[in-house]
Design brief:
The complex is a heterodimer of chains A (536) and B (440).
Chain A: H1 2-13, H2 24-27, H3 42-51, H4 58-67, H5 69-77, H6 88-92, H7 107-120, H8 124-136, H9 141-147, H10 152-169, H11 175-184, H12 186-191, H13 205-215, H14 224-233, E1 237-242, E2 261-266, E3 276-278, E4 286-288, H15 297-309, H16 311-325, H17 332-345, H18 349-358, H19 360-363, H20 376-386, H21 398-405, H22 425-428, H23 431-440, H24 442-446, H25 456-462, H26 470-482, H27 488-498, H28 516-527
Helix pairs in contact in A: 3-4, 4-5, 5-18, 7-20, 8-10, 9-10, 11-15, 13-14, 16-17, 16-18, 17-18, 26-27
Chain B: H1 6-9, H2 14-22, E1 43-49, E2 59-61, H3 65-70, E3 82-83, E4 89-91, H4 96-103, E5 107-114, H5 122-131, H6 143-151, E6 159-161, H7 191-207, H8 214-234, H9 249-252, H10 263-280, E7 285-290, H11 305-324, E8 332-338, E9 358-364, E10 370-372, E11 397-398, H12 399-410, H13 415-421
The chains are: A mainly alpha (536), B alpha/beta (440).
């Protein structure tokens, strides 16, 4: 392998300027990959890239075919083993990192940071999970903005950024850890009103949603009185400003001097110290003893630990992961397998994912390929990746950001309701979203005028596709974009498009002709408006 | 298909015409609008209040002393409420612009609207109302779509969801068009846009006719509707109401109320677009929404976020009236609904948690105005606020009854279709089932 790898790297170094996809084969950061028994399976490889990643690039497709899906997924489950795409860091370097809540970093920077990772990172599964956890434990920047005083914009951005870092660092960790991170983040404490949840007359907002949306799932094993009891357990969970070194310490002294940061703060005097009983009379009843005020914080931790261990939670969160990676309608057998894994690993997300990715449902069930609709974010990122779009400056990613904030209505970190944006198929197919997806394709045509650029001629050259060979071009994109889901009639349409000039007259495709690049880019606009592009 | 070339895609060839005829759905362009407002057809504007409006602080039982006992900080002093004339109920003062229409007899304020075993989850509650199928947790087809399929077959544009997300009321097969904003629903106006439009109008229509399987067919159908909707929007007559009808957030709220993602401006934008569609297209039902009614904390009594929401809601309804008074107002019924009401007692955060029976309004030129289910006859001043679960107002009328009456008495929906459009409604009994006689 060594020689191949060296060659690939050498070739990529000579590749077209700006390409972020170079590296081919094993050069794609998969230095430790071993060829597996399932190598050579194009259909499974492309499917895995549509789900585990935000869609294939040709380099990654080559890599997964070469080494096999099992070997590649194993590497994705251990992202630190993957050599990162050298094109990513130069973009990230231009995004101002919020060392404090008092800088200039705003939400647009965080959104660009998130988009850059999804498009360019080779640790694709981690990025998928960052999105999954951000959406599962949704908090809304605007709620923070309204609550926080002073420089509310940068303070709210700072908190959203810190939360994003936690999800990225712990994407594959234990569900219990993720749940605690979310519950103790100032973001969540403010967003769902634990910040004003006090003894005697509690606020049910977090209590209801932690059961309904974050752990057990709606109407799945809890009652109204359980919500009331859980709400009592979280009385006193508030926030205050502390010195930066005290961030995250719920017992730290509040301190508003010297550029403080907002942090979780347990307000013992507001805590209901009486005993509580949750799930009374069930096999999973949880009794919380009366505790002195200064130990009252333990009530909330006990509740979170109990919720994370419940089979209801294993069922609900596994179902959501299966819906994300396999099918909107989760196969019950796979849900059951995931619940077993959850029980035997204390909710280790990496192991639950392994169960999903090793299942027949994921690997071999033909009915479960191309059976999901992409969210707008997934669709735009997948198109950009497949056509090897690139930027030099982070603000050029606003081609994607502006549409997500506008007609596509997927404003990252600013979804107002705690359920997160909808991921099911029929939520993605409203005519407004489809038009927004179509409009995005203008950037393929507008290149190189647009900030987000596509150089299709160079990409074809780099992948060894003869520029004047219509069938080779059609086959290349047909495989990359539509593997296993391209009809003869669609292929004919693609072919005819390439063999027709701007006036609609038959004309051979000639790389030396003046209209070549426009014809090629319009062809890509056409392809990327096929229905399959919003499917996965 | 093998003979199709790019001449066809670009719309030059005769084959392009033939292709148009192959599509599954008819084109909308040129037939779905008129240059002058279309009067005569009855129309409905739905306004969904997402998050659960606090009905108890909207149509207020001012003569029930328990209201004041339960809400030490949120209750509106009776001297500051707007009297509704029945000696029992009054409007929140932030609904002043709606109260003006009440005085004209055009507002039906309906308290205690809900459904059996009301669900306290926002997302279940909204699903149950929008599919009109309480308890059907996977239902995904909206009552508007079912109505359109039964009553409007052949119409190129029965209904439109004017909202950021397509509202579930408008989902189904085929889903009704979803137009987040008319001005944004365009390919653009430059060279690249022309290329997109050229692609869309010829080549893509062909692709959207290929393939099989439920998901592909759904996507094809939706994509085709998208192209047709773009045609329609492009050819809609312009509409230029006075700017003050549809104001910006900054112009109607004080600075304390701002910064919530421009929800007010967005609501007024949706209303302006909804009126344009109701006036100039064949759309009979249009739906808009207002987010962020989930006031668990600091909701505000006389001032604050909940009053701001009421103010925006009422301001917008009055604007629609002003904007349509000369043409379609008497053909229009506005329906305002939310997924649930809230706890009758305030919580320790000066807010309210999820509840059951809530408020709906039906408003229009031929509406029989008045107060329903909030009067001394039907509201014993003893525990009514806590009849359900010791926390909530029980519902007295089913939301499907309110909607069925609007659809039958106003839109003229055939009675035999109502139990299909609103499943289970005909099986209810008593006040849950009986019409309120909302229309003149």
């Amino acid at each position: 392998m060594g020689l191949t790898l060296a060659l690939a790297l050498t070739l990529s170094a000579c590749g077209g300027g700006g390409s972020s996809y170079s590296g081919g084969g094993s050069g794609g950061g998969g230095g430790g990959l071993q060829v597996g028994e399932d190598a050579g399976d194009l259909g499974m490889s492309a499917h895995a890239l549509r789900r585990v990643a935000f869609g294939p690039t040709q380099d990654e497709l080559d890599q997964v075919v070469e080494f096999g899906v099992s070997s590649w997924i194993e590497s994705q489950l251990h992202p630190s083993s993957i050599q990162e795409n050298p094109a990513l860091q130069p973009i990230l370097n231009q995004i101002p990192y919020p060392n404090t809540p008092y800088g200039t970093t705003g939400m647009k920077d965080l959104v660009r940071f998130q988009i850059a990772h999804a498009v360019f990172s080779r640790r694709q599964l981690r990025e998928q999970l960052v999105h999954f956890w951000e959406n599962h434990f949704n908090t809304d920047y605007w709620t923070l903005f309204r609550f926080l005083q002073g420089p509310a914009q940068t303070r709210a951005t700072y908190l959203e950024w810190k939360e994003n870092e936690l999800f990225r660092q712990n994407a594959f960790g234990s569900f219990h850890d993720l749940l605690v991170m979310s519950a103790t983040s100032p973001n969540m404490i403010i967003y769902l009103d634990n910040v004003s949840n006090t003894k005697g007359n509690p606020n049910e907002n977090y209590a209801r949603e932690v059961l309904e949306l974050f752990t057990m799932g709606v109407d799945n094993g809890y009652t109204e009185s359980d919500i009331e009891e859980v709400a009592r357990c979280f009385t006193g969970w508030g926030v205050c400003e502390v010195r930066p070194r005290d961030y995250g310490n719920p017992n730290a002294t509040c301190n508003t001097s010297a550029q403080p940061v907002w942090s979780f703060r347990f307000k013992a005097g507001q805590h209901d110290t009486d005993a509580k009983t949750i799930f009374a009379g069930t096999s999973y009843e949880l009794h919380i003893p009366a505790r002195p005020q200064n130990q009252g914080i333990q009530d909330g931790y006990d509740v979170l630990a109990h919720l994370a261990s419940l089979p209801h939670t294993a069922e609900y969160v596994s179902t959501k992961l299966i819906q994300r990676f396999v099918s909107d309608s989760a196969p019950q057998a796979l849900v059951n397998e995931c619940k077993s894994t959850w029980a035997s690993t204390d909710g280790d997300i990496r192991e639950v994912l392994r169960t999903i990715f090793e299942s027949d449902a994921f690997r071999s069930n033909a009915n479960l390929r191309w059976n999901k609709v992409r969210t707008p974010f997934e669709s735009l990122v997948a198109t950009t990746r497949a056509l090897e779009g690139f930027v030099n400056r982070p603000e050029e990613l606003d081609a994607i950001r502006n549409l997500l904030d506008g007609i596509l209505n997927q404003p990252l970190f600013r979804w107002s309701t705690p359920d997160g944006y909808p991921e099911d198929a029929t939520a993605q197919t409203g005519t407004g979203k489809l038009l927004g997806g179509l409009i995005f394709k203008r950037f393929i045509y507008d290149s190189p005028n647009a900030g987000l650029r596509f150089d299709l001629r160079s990409a074809l050259t780099r992948h060894g596709v003869p520029l004047g060979n219509v069938d080779a071009i059609v086959d290349f994109y047909g495989q990359l974009l539509f593997q296993g889901n391209l009809r003869a009639a669609e292929r004919n349409l693609m072919r005819d498009f390439l063999m027709t000039d701007e006036s609609g007259n038959p004309a051979p495709l000639d790389p030396a002709a003046a209209d070549y690049d426009e014809r090629l880019h319009l062809f890509a606009v056409f392809l990327c408006s096929f229905p399959q592009v919003i499917q996965q | 298909m093998g003979t199709i070339n790019r001449r066809t895609f670009l719309g030059f060839g005769a084959a392009g015409v033939a292709l148009g005829g192959m599509r599954g759905l008819p084109g909308l362009g040129g037939t779905a609008h008129a240059a002058t407002p279309m009067a005569g057809d009855k129309k409905v504007l739905l306004i969904f209040l997402r998050g659960g409006n606090d009905g108890t602080n909207s149509v207020i039982p001012v003569s029930d002393p328990e209201y004041y006992a339960a809400r030490p900080t949120l209750a509106i002093p009776s001297g500051q409420t707007l009297d509704l004339g029945n000696g029992w109920a009054a409007m929140h003062p932030s609904l002043a612009k709606l109260h003006e229409l009440h005085e004209l007899g055009e507002v039906a304020s309906i308290q205690r609207v809900g459904y059996p075993d009301g669900n306290l989850s926002h997302f279940r509650g909204q699903r149950y109302i929008e599919t009109a199928e309480p308890g059907a947790n996977l239902a995904d087809e909206g009552f508007v779509t079912r109505w359109a399929n039964l009553e409007m077959s052949g119409s190129p544009l029965p209904a439109v969801s004017v909202s950021k997300e397509i509202q579930r009321m408008f989902k189904g097969s085929p889903a009704m068009p979803h137009i987040p904003s008319i001005s944004a629903f365009t390919y653009g106006d430059d060279a690249a846009a022309a290329k997109l439009a050229g692609n869309a109008q010829s080549g893509l229509r062909a692709v959207y006719g290929l393939g099989s399987g439920a998901l592909r067919e759904h996507v094809n159908e939706s994509c085709t509707a998208m192209l047709s909707t773009a045609d329609l929007v492009t050819s809609l007559p312009t509409h230029s109401p006075p700017p003050e009808y549809y104001p910006t957030e900054e112009s109607i709220l004080d600075s304390q109320g701002l910064a919530a993602d421009n929800w007010v401006s967005n609501y007024f934008g949706e209303l302006r677009d909804a009126v344009r569609l109701l006036k100039f297209s064949q759309a009979r039902v249009v739906g808009v929404e207002i987010p962020l009614w989930d006031h668990h904390g600091n909701q505000g009594g006389l001032t604050g976020d909940h009053p701001n929401h009421l103010h925006a809601l009422a301001h917008g309804i009055r604007s629609v009236r002003l904007d349509t008074l000369s043409d379609i107002w008497n053909d229009l019924a506005i329906v305002v609904i939310s997924e649930f009401g809230r706890t009758s007692a305030e919580n320790g955060s000066a807010g309210t948690d999820h509840g059951k029976g809530g408020v709906a309004w039906v408003i229009g030129g031929n509406v029989r105005g008045g107060v329903y289910n909030c009067d001394s006859n039907t509201w014993p001043a003893n525990n009514t606020l806590f009849t359900d679960g010791d926390k909530w107002l029980a519902h007295l009328i089913d939301y499907r009854t309110v909607l069925a009456e609007v659809f039958q008495s106003h839109l003229g929906t055939a009675p035999g279709n109502l139990d299909t459009i609103f499943p289970g409604w005909a099986g209810l009994s008593g006040s849950e089932y009986e019409y309120l006689d909302l229309f003149i």
